[in-house]
Amino acid sequence: MPRIITALLYVTRLPQKMADEDLKNLAKGFARYAFDYIEAARTVDDTIGRRPEHDFISPMPAYFLAMHGVELSLKAFLMCQGMAPKQFGHNLRTLYETAQKHGLFDVYKPRASDDEAIGLLVDLNADQGLRYMREGEKDFPSFGIVEPLAVRLHQAIAPVVGYERTFNVHFGDQ
After folding, report:
1. Distances (CA, A) of 84 to 28, 50, 144
2. Using an 8 Å Cβ cutoff, are 119 and 140 in contact?
3. pLDDT in tens, 113-148
4. Angle of the 112-124 helix axis to the 92-101 helix axis, nearest 10
5. Can you list the domains of the chain with their CATH numbers?
6. What's the gap between Cα 8 and its chain centre?
7. What is the three-class DSSP state of 57?
C-alpha cells in the first residue's frame, strides 16, 4: 500500500502581504529545507571532502549547500519577524544584517569567524560563482568555519520558527 507523504511544496508566487499564520507556516518550511541543505553539505564534506584532492578546500557543492542552508535559515527567522519573503533577496550579508536588526542576536550568539565565513561565501558566490565556474583566484573559507556557522544558526532559529528538528552537534563554546 503506498504511503502518503505531506510536505511543504515550493511555491513560485507568493503574495506581497501574507497573514502572520501563513508566514509562520512558511518559516517552518524554510527551516526544514535549511536543515536538509546543511545536512547535505555536511554529508558531502564528510564523504568527498576526505579524498586527497580536498586536503585544503572542501568540495564546491559543500560550500553551495551550506550557503543556501544559511540563506534559508535567515529567511525563516525574518518571516517569523513578520517579513514577507519578497522583502529580501539572496545576499547573505544583507540577510544577516537585516536579521541582526530584527533580533537575531537575541537567540544566536555570533562568533568572530561567522562574519568572516559569511563574507567569504558572499565573495565566492558573486555572479553565481558557487554554481558556475568563474575565472580568477578565489579565497575559500575553511569548512571548519562554514559548518559551525550553518549548524549553530539553524540550532538557534529552528525553535524560534517552531521547527522541531535541528542538529545534535556542538562546536566548542556554543
Report:
1. 14, 40, 32
2. no
3. 999 999 988 888 777 767 767 777 777 778 889 999
4. 140
5. 20-161 (1.20.120)
6. 18
7. coil
